[in-house]
Amino acid sequence: MTSILVLNGPNLSRLGSREPEVYGSTTWEQLVKSLEAAATSTETISVRQTNDESELIGWIHEALDLQAEVILNPAAFTHYSYALRDAVAMFTGAQLPLIEVHISNPHAREEFRHNSVISGVATGVIAGFGVESYHLALAALRSRR
Ligand code: DQA
């Protein structure tokens, strides 16, 4: 059995009503359902969201302990959380994949979004495909097994 944690940072639970021109009209509940429904018979998929940096880092530790694969949308933490980066860096040593995802394409937006402190320690990055970015990340995880 492969455990997959889909971890989301601040404000992503507002999906659907939050800046729909940027993030689309799919609601958070719809996204959670579509990801849970995508699990194969050999996968468990747990989708979580927090506005709390400490809780998000705790989930990264949990993923390491569980030997879980991770899809991470760090949201605004992407751009400044060295603490989250240090947690994600432990994945490299553990040889577990962690894919950074973004709904929007941060490079096509404000300058402060152009830098990710996470990308340098992620296995790969998928951005700009709307909520489909998460499903592309799932496909990427499967292609590496
Ligand atoms: C985001 C992009 C970030 O810049 C932003 O802070 C978010 C969402 C995205 O999924 O496009 O909250 O990670």
UniProtKB/TrEMBL annotation:
Annotated GO biological processes are: quinate catabolic process
Q: Extract the GO molecular function terms from the UniProt entry.
A: 3-dehydroquinate dehydratase activity
Q: Does the keyword Metal-binding apply?
A: no
What's the EC number here?
A: 4.2.1.10
In Pfam terms, one family for this protein is: DHquinase_II
Question: What InterPro entries does its record include?
Answer: DHquinase_II, DHquinase_II_CS, DHquinase_II_sf
Q: SUPFAM superfamilies from the xrefs?
A: Type II 3-dehydroquinate dehydratase
HAMAP family per the record? AroQ (MF_00169)
Which keywords accompany this UniProt record?
A: Lyase
Q: What class of enzyme is it?
A: lyase
The protein here is known as 3-dehydroquinate dehydratase
